[in-house]
């Protein structure tokens, strides 16, 4: 049986998900909890550091939440969270599934599931690629803040890795715009000839892009209606990982 006071206290705290600050009267109206109960719970929540009352008589979340938030985010292991989702995707599609994170102006492959993918691909664990090359790397670049993208495009030198590597900054910028519009990136022979990939971005609890998940294989499997199928699967998998990282 749930503790009624605890549940009501959580109801009050949840109000601050949508409101930065609330008066005593606003909390009563929004929570629909009796005035005397709200008063007692606010006193307790303030005493424990969950809420603080400002000089304007409005209540706000206390710094205790910042401490808890940093602890939770620091202890979340993206690889551990992503792996079962990657396995499920691989079992369904029989294509290689890759997980990458950003390191400066590069992306590094930190996990891969390719039991059923018999073709050896560029995307081995530990390999790096510049943010402009390959669907999985470029999906991180595409969802950075505008000023970061502008700075990157201004300073990067586009070198070819395979016959499909993007080496024109105008084409790269168009690819970034399409990724933002569609929610995914696609590459053909960018890091390795005759291979293709479709990737979707992974976001943390702050809404920042921190990685990507890609479906990869031989380019013959990444044509026509198959693109839409793989894109939908990649986006769904990336969303599941992002949610587990606290992204809303």
UniProtKB/TrEMBL annotation:
Domain IclR-ED: 64-247
PANTHER family: HELIX-TURN-HELIX TRANSCRIPTIONAL REGULATOR, ICLR FAMILY, HTH-TYPE TRANSCRIPTIONAL REPRESSOR ALLR
Keyword check for Transcription regulation: yes
The HTH iclR-type domain, residue ranges: 3-63
Glycoprotein recorded as keyword: no
Designated name of the protein: IclR family transcriptional regulator
Record keywords: DNA-binding, Transcription, Transcription regulation
Domain of life: Bacteria
